[in-house]
Write a structure and sequence with these properties.
single chain; 176 residues; alpha+beta; six-stranded antiparallel β-sheet; three-stranded antiparallel β-sheet; 3 helices; 9 strands; binds zinc ion
Amino acid sequence: MRKPENFHKIDNQTLKIGSQIVMIDVCKEGFFVTQNGGNNHWNNVILFEMDWEKDQYNIKICVLGEGTDGWYLHEKLPIPKSLMRTISSFKEFVVANMVDVTAHVDLTNIEPYMAGETNIDAVEIKHNVQSSSGPITYIVTENTGGIAGEWNCTCPAYQYSKELPQTCKHIKSINT
Ligand SMILES: [Zn+2]
């Protein structure tokens, strides 16, 4: 879909998530949702990256004052077009998403790169995988950094992988 013409009108709109008032701050990537007063000071802001061309959006948990640095809670969610029509329906969209965010993330805490649902007790496993084109061995890491389901490989294809999450044939050979 095209970016709604009146998208800028949601800038500085406030809305209520439970008892918390939040504010919308439109930016180049989409918009931020920030805490507006209240107790339990949030150390995070939530970035909604709106990809209007692909009709998808990402929800990123960013650190207050650190711009767009952060980690993704959700990626490539479909943009519900019907809710993009008016300011009040757009607010419904934000509220529904923020209820989900606050259910999964403690926004008062800075937990970079860790989703609330993630099992951080997972054990890192290293696999040696022989390169198919030479005598090189690549190291595939499973549960990278103790995060269940996080994969990593030392090969160049992984480093330059454009897939999300990044991957390569070595990871795929093990993670089947
Ligand atoms: Zn690889």
